[in-house]
Amino acid sequence: MPEYETFEHDVLVIGAGGAGLRAAIEASAAGVRVGLVCKSLLGKAHTVMAEGGIAAALANVDERDNWRVHFADTMRGGQYVNQWRMAELHAKEAPDRVRELEAWGAVFDRTKDGRILQRHFGGHKYPRLAHVGDRTGLEMIRTLQDHGVHQGIDVYMEHTILSLLKDGDRVVGAFGYERERGRFKIFRAKAVVLATGGGEGWRLAMPAGAEVSVGVVRQGMVQIHVPGEEHLDGTPVTRGNYELRMRHGLVVNRRGQRFGNEYFFQALGAQLHAFETWGEHRFINIPCYLIFDHTLVDTYSFAGLPPGYTAGLAWVPQGHTLAELAQHLHLPAAAIEATVARFNAHARRGEDPDFHRPTESLGPIEQPPFYGLELASPPVSAGTIGLVTTPQAQVLHHETRQPILGLYACGQIVAARLDLGVGYQAGCQLMRALVHGFLAAEHAAGSV
User: Per residue, what are the HEC states of the chain?
Assistant: First the structure.
């Protein structure tokens, strides 16, 4: 039998995104030997793509908020099919997890009196999302990484795990290889924490008997697609929907009418399924279009371009008047002009009586040239396939429904239906990463 290089740890964490880093930090704080394996380099996890914020009932902006309200929002948003105990734990734990990030150096946006600023987002009764502009995920990874590298954690970058190792009914480590040289390695551990995101974690866990849940398809969302940006299989690459929340812009359907609150992608996504049963017999709000003016382009970064860089927007249809723009987009000019006129009249007063868009996101669309583009509408995928766990993050066996000894999971690899049900609240994924990671490591370290 060939000799493989072997490493010994009490807790082995596979994956170095938000959940994996938080788990490794917690396990190390418990005084056990920790190994952290990641496919790429530290800091390159998909967590950095999360923009919105972290849902936590800190009550810094509205003192009426508390964990009970957060818990109620989560259960209601999940249509009450979520497990109440998991939803309760998340609501209770989230504030402490955010305060830890702050203590470790996270530079959150601030209220006037210096506390962590929180903003409104879809699915929350009160302003609840702690954020760092629109780069919260990046700041979270930076903070966890900077704190974690000083905790005595053994980090194995650019390693791929091929399978989990078992001794009887217990998981006792993992087998993988170093990507640069192709050398196989054995990682022995008393407990393994899977934190692989929405990727191959369930494939690793299934041979160990793990139960996998195939979740429901969530409501859609709309995103920007730059022509020519495609995946290898030819499907378009989409760039998120940050631009929809900017001032001096709105979204209309093919009739030239607004149909939702552009600031909350859930509000627009929920309306994408509206179908005209009679008449044209088609979706009412698909396709839909983002309409904006030069003030937006001059003020904000659009599609990754520097503010004011109009040369990079040659691919975006534009017109010196709204009627000219409507002609380019094949939309009814009179309807576009009426929609924008109504929006502008209220935006100047800082109000949106039609869809209650937040005041800070409102701005009139009046400075030519005017821009518009059709939005792509891919489905939201937030852990629709995931592992079934206990509230303490222990992975369950698909036959016995009992915890698999030595195996834990945290973050997006956990089936979203357990804590989120069929809903999708803004800020839930970063919150899940922190809370899941903490709970998984707390229990794993206590079991070794």
Answer: CCCCEEEEEEEEEECCCHHHHHHHHHHHHCCCCEEEECCCCCCCCHHHHCCCCEECCCCCCCCCCCHHHHHHHHHHHCCCCCCHHHHHHHHHHHHHHHHHHHHCCCCCCECCCCCECEECCCCCCCCCEECCCCCHHHHHHHHHHHHHCCCCCEEECCEEEEEEEEECCEEEEEEEEECCCCCEEEEEEEEEEECCCCCCHHHHHHHHCECEEECCCCCECCECEEEEEECCCCCEEECCCHHHHCCCEEEEECCCCCCCCCCCHHHHHHHCCCECCCCCCCECCCCEEEEEEHHHHHHCCCCCCCCCCHHHHCCCCEECCHHHHHHHHCCCHHHHHHHHHHHHHHHCCCCCCCCCCCHHHCCCCCCCCEEEEECECCECCCCCEEECECCCCEEEECCCCCEEEEEEECHHHECHHHCCCCCCCCCHHHHHHHHHHHHHHHHHHHHC
pTM for this entry: 0.71
**What CA–CA distance (Å, rounded) separates 23 from 313?**
43
Residue type at position 92: K
* Mean per-residue pLDDT pooled into runs of 10, the chain (448 residues): 86 96 97 95 85 92 96 85 92 97 96 94 86 91 94 95 96 95 95 90 91 64 79 71 89 96 82 72 86 95 86 93 97 98 97 94 96 78 74 94 97 87 78 95 92
Distance CA(257)–CA(252), nearest Å, equals 5
Which residue's structure tokens are 């049963």? 277
State both tokens at 201: 């974690």
Distances in Å between the alpha carbon of 74 and those of 2, 266, 432? 51, 14, 12
With tokens 């966890």, the residue in question is 144
CATH of 225-374, one of 3.40.50.10300, 3.40.190.10, 1.20.1250.20, 3.90.700.10: 3.90.700.10
Q: Are 407 and 168 in contact (CB under 8 A)?
A: no
Report the CATH architecture of 5-215+382-447. 3-Layer(bba) Sandwich (3.50)
